[in-house]
Please model this.
Amino acid sequence: MLLFAIWVLFPLYFTVTSSFMTPAEVGRVPFHWVPERPTLANYSAILRGDSTPFSDDAGGGVVASSTNAVERLMPAMGRSVIVGLVVVFINLVVGGAAAYAFSRYPFRGAKIAYLGLLASRVVPAIAIVSPFFVFFRKTELLNTAPALIISYLVFTLPLAIWLLKSYFDSVPKELEEAAMLDGASRLKCLISIVLPLARPGLIAAGLLVFLEAWSEFFYALVLTNELTAPPVVAGLQNLQQFSWTTLAAASIFSLIPPVLIAVLFQRYIVSGLARGSVR
Amino acid sequence: MHEDRDAGAPERGGDEEGLKVSRASLLRGAMAAGVALPAMGLLAACGSSDDEGSTGTSGGSGGSGEAYAGALAMTAWEAYPDQIRANLAAFSKQYGNRVDLTLIPNIGYGPALQTRLQGGQEIDAYYNFAYNSTKFVDAGWAKELNDLPGVEEMLDDMFETSAARHKLPDGRIVSVPYFSAVHLPMYNAAQLRRAGFARPAQSLSEIYDQCEKLKADGVRAPYAAYWTKQFSEEYFILYLVAEGIVPFDEEGNPTFQDDAKTEGVLDWWTSMYQDGLTARSILTDDPGKHVAAMAQGTSTYFTLHHYFLKEIRNARGPASSDVVLDYRIPGENGQSLQIGEVVQLGAAAEGGRADAAWELLKFYGWKDKDGRYGTFVSWAESAALLGPYPGLFQDPQFRRAFPDYYDLGQLERAFEASQVVPARVLPWYSSFQTKVGDRIQAMLLGQASVKDTISSLADDAKNFAAAG
Amino acid sequence: MPPQADTAAAAGRTATASSPRPSKPARTRAQKRSRRAAADRRFGLYLALPALVVVLGLIAWPAIQTLIYSLQRVALNGDTRWVGFRNFELLFKNPDFIHSLWLTAVYAIAFLVVSTGLGLAFALLLNEQFRGRFLARTLLIVPWACPWVIAGIIWKWFADGDVGALNGALYQLGVIDEYKAWLSSDTGALIISVLAAAWRQASFAALLFLAGLQTIPHELPEAAKVDGATAWQRFRLITLPWLKPVIVVVIVINVIFGFMQFDVIYALTQGGPGNATEVLSIFLYQQLFVYTNVGMGSAVAVVLGVVALLIGLLFVKLLYRSGDVTEGVS
Model:
């Protein structure tokens, strides 16, 4: 329990406290576990679009911020959510169908196709960003959500299929066979019997896919100008000013949507699965 | 968001062969993926949110000599984006061409730019790191600027040393300046006084001695510098140059290994780290941390580009106002290393569009239509950056941009006397740079001796240069 | 990728004959059955086709191109020249590459062990009834919701030599007597980069295990308890076998993520100090974007892919001694 608390909470707690501190305070030795004078400056800076709340820009005549990263954060998060949700939706429909096929209706060459899917995950993503870029340039999809959606589908579908197949395998076949004897079609079996039972699996796979899509950094950087959350937050990193406290606030900020979604759905995974498996 | 113009622009020949195959096969894949694509089509609309009025582009390039009134595409890393936009707006006002700006965060600029250019994206003008500039010309991603109207005048207008960053020994002109800076030591004068030192250190051994005393007096990490993997090379060259060592000959062959003083420099470097006169974490610390350390008074010396003084002052720490610049790098001849990044002309545009792009480069990297160094003044105002033109230092607005903790006369002299080290823009240099990071850090960590490090680095440079 | 063919063949050899489908053969209706089986196969193909087309259709050409490039010298302007296995030869003669290869193996295995092990432990813990369980489960998710890059950045500062809470805590506990620059030491940087990545991934593993644990019928452990089985015996004889399918999924995903990990290390150390954390993905990045040697970079990509695939399959085989990955697909 203690290990769990330390492992999960410690880095997180550090990020949260830092986000309420000034750069001067976070540098104190020994470390201040509770901010002496908690400040909201980091958060309000993000809302204002100011990347260096603890620095004067009074030197010259022009007040200019060295980065627009904070201004870009909100729209980038919005794009991340949209891209993530679409990727999840397509994954569940397309990947779910494939996983079900692999589990129940193995076709000729299914094994090779299945292994091919898994093997596609060991192609290093960085090595193939160039052909992807050319493909999207020629299809005029650069800088669009579909470019990211298609790329992320390629990388997440194998994971989703892999995970979903294991869930479908755990749903007893007898139910479908009984339904089929009663004259139900294959599709009807899938929709009315298997899907409800596999719902926790679908949600787990959906969550995995969403968080992987949410997490992706390099393709977003190369394929789009408008960017998603990770490159924008990371863009705050290499500033000339000490920026960790603001960065911490931005990180916390960017965690809100995925955590909300994850928390919303984790109950279904955990409790739903228990219900589903009562045979 | 300017791909709409790609269709009308001339196709690039030569290297497209392999790409066409990929296009065909990939396209077929996508066609078959009909299930997924309609959903995406719907999303295309909400994904591309910023087509801020990109209508009215004339599409395609006019014939040579014909004035091009369409938009230009520029790619920049994200440094003072509002100022970039203001500068581009000024350009549009004077020349009529709108400029579509693409900003890429610093963290992935290199790979993102390279992938885009390699993938055939048309960019008329882009920021680049000086060490990549020749390589990009060789790769066909940037144009040589020789014979373009005004380019020789531009070079003549520069400090003589600075021109070597843009014009190679073989006479090719590869880039125009974006900004320049000079490495200088910033130091906490009050701390030095308290420790009994009347002036900042003027030699490497003096730095060591002063820092030892400062450490004993309780300064946590007396010496600060940006000794990360990526920046080790800059310091390597800086320390050599300040000691009067010639790192490379005119052809770009390494010569540092033949100078007996090189060993002394690296010995000093190693002991500074191993004897704890720097923060232990200096190998991974970002400049922002050093700025904070100077502002808080936990470091006394910070050697990096001169403009960081402004960051230290702006950080409003208790020690911020004690920090001043020395205009001489400690070492036998005290010369500094001048750095600067560049703007390059994209290779794709032809005819009138290429002419307009060149006007943009001249505007951005030299003077505006009124003969003012407009963009350089703007960088000075936002970040105390310099430009390589003596005339710029006479501009009253430029001079006003520097707060009074800068002695502009001394800064100009230090800048003028600083070395560019022309080898640093050769096509193989970025490879060498990465190696220096590995080797210097290994040396600092005690995994390689100074002697071995020097000879390996010389071998690296020779090998990379030979490979081209 | 050529590995596909290899693995397919390999898996073919290890495949079990047992097909999960028709459970009782009905000889009398043999014809009808075979017609139905054919229709089943078609149905399966239709279901799987879109996914196959998207993934394999889009990845096939880039993968093949990578393979081709690995046998070529690729000039920056796109000119290519066949050089046979020269790139691989040079790679395996390059001590930096060999170092990187070993480092990758160490990194991936350490990542696998830490993230899977902790994930399992957390899942067992959170499967118990206790006050605040919901809160604990919610917190568990947060690291997983951190993008890799941001996990890297958080740990960079967390382990920082001056402001980091890691130092702060160890210092106050008296474990260390001065702040340590973890990321500036070889082993320190390696350990932190494993922990940072595992921090995110342990939560993923825990959540999947937790879901798996929930499916264990309550009667089983309780009956075992009545029979006098110790907690360890119950874990080994009931929990583990029950979780096996999930464990395989998690392990394979973690193996892949371990070998392919780039974002975290890039954000934390960029392969440093020196080349102490220069795993193959960083090495690959440098070949492609610093040395701009596409041929060599592709060769590195091929090696990385093949190694990850082989290790992944090895685990699958070890775990499924009686079956294989494609259990259920035959």
User: Anything to note?
Assistant: Chain B is about 45% helix and 10% strand. Confidence is low (pLDDT under 50) at residues 1-64 of chain B.
